Amino acid sequence: DETYDFARIQQRWLPVWDRLRPFATDDETDARPRKYVLDMFPYPSGDLHMGHAESYAYGDVLARYWRQQGFNVLHPIGWDSFGLPAENAAIKRGVDPKAWTESNIEQHKRSMRQYATAFDWDRILHTSDPAYYKWNQWLFLELYKAGLAYRKPSNVNWCPKDQTVLANEQVIDGRCERCDTPVVKKKLTQWYFKITDYADRLLDDLNQLEGRWPEKVLRMQRNWIGRSEGAEVEFEIEGHHSRVPVFTTRPDTLYGATFMVVAPDSDLAAELVAGAPAEVRMRFQAYLDDVGRMTEIDRQSTERVKTGVDLQRFAIHPLTGERLPVWAADYVLADYGHGAVMAVPAHDQRDLDFARVFDLPVKVVVDTNAPVTGVMPAIPLDEHGNAVLPDDLPALDPKTTGEALTGDGRMINSGELDGMSKQHAIGRMVQLLEAKGVGRAAKSFRLRDWLVSRQRYWGTPIPIVHTADGQEVPVPLEQLPVTLPDSAGLDLSPKGTSPLGAADDWVNVPSPIDGSPARRDPDTMDTFVDSSWYYLRFLSPNDDTQAFDPRQVERWAPVDRYVGGVEHAILHLLYARFITKVLFDLGHVPFTEPFESLLNQGMVILDGAKMSKSKGNLVTLSEELEQFGVDAIRLSMSFAGPPEDDIDWKDVSPTGAQKFLARAWRLSKEPLARAGTDPKPGDRALRRETHRFLADAPGLIESLKFNVVVARLMELTNATRKAVDSGPGAADPAVREAVETIALGLSLFAPYTAEDMWANLGFEPSIANAGWRKADRSLLVEQSVTAVVQVNGKVRDRVDVPADIADADLERTARELPGVVRSIGDAEVRHVVVRAPRLVNFVIG
Ligand code: ANZ
Question: Which GO cellular component terms, listed alphabetically, does the Swiss-Prot or TrEMBL entry include (predicted)?
Answer without folding.
Answer: cytosol
